[in-house]
Design brief:
Elements (H helix, E strand, L loop, with lengths): L4 E3 L11 E3 L2 H51 L1 H8 L6 H18 L2 H14 L4 H8 L2 H20 L2 H13 L3 H7 L6 E4 L2 E5 L1 H13 L14 E6 L3 H13 L3 H16 L3 H33 L7 H35 L4 H23 L5 H9 L1 H18 L5 H23 L2 H14 L2
Protein name: Integral membrane protein
Keywords: Membrane, Transmembrane, Transmembrane helix
Amino acid sequence: MNPAASPDPPDSGGDVTRHHVMTAEERAEYERLRRHATVRHRRLRRVGSSVLLLLALVLAPLAVVAAWVQDTVSDTDRYVETVAPLASEPAVQEVVINRFTDRVVANVDVAGVTDSLVKALQDAGAPPRVVEGAESLEGPLRNAVRTVVDRTITQVITSDAFQQVWEGANRRSHAAVVNMLTGDREGAVRAEGDTVQLDIGEVVDEVRERLVDAGFDKAAAIPDTDRTITLFQTEELGKAQDAMRLLDILGTWLPVLTVVLAALAVWTNPAHRVMLMITATGVGLMMVVLLVALAVVRRVYLDSVPPDALPTDAAAAIYDTFVRFLRDSTRTLLVVAVITALVAYLYGPGRPARAVRTAANRGTTAAGRGLRRAGLRTGSTGRWLADHRPWTTGGVIAAGALALVLWNHPTVGAVALVLGIAVAVLIILAILAAAAGPADRAADQATEGSAP
């Protein structure tokens, strides 16, 4: 309907329809009301977009942690891949070797052996000098036993067989992670009050068997008690377990909800490109916050572990091993956020963005011109690519995003690979479009004009 004129009801006595023409004052009032409604509508969209963005940014780090927890708990291969490096970590190996050696040597009654030897020599009427020499054998004998035991245990712990035993035990007891988070008393990793302990029973059995085979019959008496190593102790374990249970439940849907909220924030905002930049930048900042939080938690954890219970280097190795995939995921999302913000900026009107686009266009145009000079014209294909460049560009970007979504545990390297392929494809498409040439376009237009 034309706002400047509105039809009046026809007269009862004639066929002529009269139209009301808006006066200047009425038109000005109409334009004012329309602008006011438009501004109000845009303001509401911006407010709604800001609320959605705030929710998405708050949920982003929680979604990353929840997905990591669920992945580690539910995927056996992923869990084994997480804990496998502990068996080959030198600091952890040293702790295990020292603990086993102390327990085995303490279980060997060296003093009883020397006392029996002294008594036997006395009963046999040995000279006093020989008896005194036998009494002084306790120290050297204890050192010899410790040396042999340490060497045997070291061979076991540093062997490939131990690595296989370690991975096999963790694969069979994959529920250990769930036990730690829920407080169950089964599996290799378990929660005892405010401490988290590692059950090394299978390793104890392996070492005991090796020592018996090496001739240490006393090793068969190694007790089955005290077969755990305290990983860390914290009064906040109960709260962490509650939080992890919630994150485990939301592990699947929280990331989906976060992505949907971010997408709605971009869609509802009138300035889609600017909002995409803001969203990507915000997500990147939240990933930085998560990395800082992991570093702070690491420091708190190391300070909470008594050095006599677990050396600092071993505790650091354990923590870094357990959270390394979480760090990798956070860094990957940070890189994706930076790339997204940069791409959104390059589509904008800024002078640097225009300069980059101009340089890229000149380069692809020159390459296409070179192909034409070499006789390699793309013809109708190139013209179609040139006419549908926004669609082809969007398709390539969408394909790259889909590849990352479908990629199983993408890393920064995977993002770089997908980005490189996408950029290469876009460059090739631009060159093929430029290789069509203006002459081919004019010929097409002439052909279309002469067609009946």
